[in-house]
Amino acid sequence: MAKRTRVTSHDVAARAGVSQPTVSLVLSGNPRARVAKATRARVLRAAEELGYRPNLLARALVQQRSFAIGVVVPTLSNPFFVDVVNGLERVAVAEGYAVLLCNGRGEPVAPQVETLRGRMVDGLIIDAAGAAGLPEALLADMTVVLVEEVSERWPTVTSDAEAAGRLAAEHLLELGHRAVAMIGPATDVHALRRRERGFLATLRQAGVSVRSRWLRRAPATVRGGQEAMRALLGLDARPTAVFCATDLVALGALKACVSARVRVPEEVSLVGCDDIEMARLTTPELTTVAVPARELGARAARLLIGMLEGGPDTRGRRRPLPVSLVRRGTTAPPVASAGGARMEGSR
Amino acid sequence: MAKRTRVTSHDVAARAGVSQPTVSLVLSGNPRARVAKATRARVLRAAEELGYRPNLLARALVQQRSFAIGVVVPTLSNPFFVDVVNGLERVAVAEGYAVLLCNGRGEPVAPQVETLRGRMVDGLIIDAAGAAGLPEALLADMTVVLVEEVSERWPTVTSDAEAAGRLAAEHLLELGHRAVAMIGPATDVHALRRRERGFLATLRQAGVSVRSRWLRRAPATVRGGQEAMRALLGLDARPTAVFCATDLVALGALKACVSARVRVPEEVSLVGCDDIEMARLTTPELTTVAVPARELGARAARLLIGMLEGGPDTRGRRRPLPVSLVRRGTTAPPVASAGGARMEGSR
DNA sequence: GGCCTTTGCCAATACGTATTAACTCCGCAA
DNA sequence: TTGCGGAGTTAATACGTATTGGCAAAGGCC
Question: CA–C1' span, A45 to C17, in Å?
């Protein structure tokens, strides 16, 4: 029951009959450290026998780096962010970094970021900082990479959000839609704003304008999409197509349509954005714009670790990651007859 | 550009004209510490002015506790575990603990747990340890709480998994199903095994046995459910109802039915388990057994923190959390006519 | 005014590791 | 013999905090 204290490098030293620094040299120092072969073997055996695990906190304290990176996401309830995290963790772990995941859960993350700072994370990856409401001052003299955000101050990793909006618009235009609505972001998430901008700009270039009543704002959740769509369906003049800034929102919108017995895509076409797994699980399947979430995370991790190890010059701006339209079942030409081209959108 | 070194308690001491221990006494020591009012004020002001943040690693090193708890989940791609984490984080943060989330991503978590150990987490919450393939030896002399697992050695927090299976079985029996299949877990996740046991036992008591070909095993993913269901549909003798150990599996099964143009619930009834948000987004909505994921996490956190602070006697076994059947659209009586009682299952 | 208690602060040390400088051997050349 | 250099090890120290014991000053008591 007596919680035996952890075995330290001193214990290993004692057992191997050497001093503690020698243990440190063998186990963590440069492999080119001058230590006799026999000694090294003795130390290794002693460490093995005692089950020695170095105390990473002590190591971080003296080395002034913890080999941990902090990751801040606004929520894990959106599978998109889970994918970003997955991509990012794979890289980080492979490079020998631990990931301290900080889940905003919708609340302000400032205090949690304070904690990360206090735990001496070497760097920070912040996803959708706008949503997190993070004061810049908090990040003073930290190494930071932003995901899906723009910034003069810190390097960023983004997808081509304008193109996402453009692809959605082009798809709807091509199908013949002119009465088009959008459910945009309620908060200041940069990527979502840019999706919106790309969408609206493309429509405008085609001579189609979105009536202000058809431009709604909703939190990026299922419920948000549901309520916004309900509002749209309640108008006397309904759009024939709706672009949602996020797949979750689109799924909510789809749900609202089903509840209201509005047929999708016959009466209303829906386009989402992200291409989360769930998008393929509904009936009909969701037409959406695929955003490479995992790759976004992986790139952010590579960039950050590069900065941490290679110096700050690694921040050569890479171009945004490409996105692509995925035609599925929730889009079709407007006022389609029940027969005809109805299945056109699905493969 | 020169990354100014962090401000330490020594800096604060210098500015306030006191010694470092005094700073420590004021800022972190017992509030009843004997410090003159004026001194305390000076220290607090100096700390404020310098923007002092204590180094939590150093503190952890000397206090031999880090006020961090490690959390291990097999994957974050299953929203169920995200909910558990959400519930758990809320409690932990409120109690002043940081959460170090360790995402298995399907791979063995042992090395990551090593890292958590090395970072001196005060305790560990491990969810679905069986899936994680975690050797017990790794956890020697750690304070651990298991979620959805049974163990003689460590305290556990569970839902009433047998009841979950029983409720599903009773529901299907009540509807009149006799040709019943199940898609069970492929790995050794205890809760899923118990769901299965409860399900099969209840059927057996009612004189219904599940033919071995109708008892399939699949990983707890959408794809797993999809493939298992495809296999079931390929048999010459099809069941009229299928219980899936997990909602994700059920969603995959539903997807497989839709793809195969098998109508749900008319031709096949489906029951899931977990009640994740997604279960309400499909058409028809998924009938399932609700498991209080968030509460599961919250309880685990409370139990662990109680053990950390109050001593090991707090582990008085609480009864498993209750589960409840949620009737929705994927269940109906077998061989139902297109009209009649078809919608009975939905509210 | 001496003695004891209380108050307020600090010197010293510990936590477990990494790193630097120094120290010991030992052989070898001058 | 002295001096020198390199190989192998260790003593000393630092990282930033918390904690213990003690020291000086202030106050209470007779």
Answer: 19
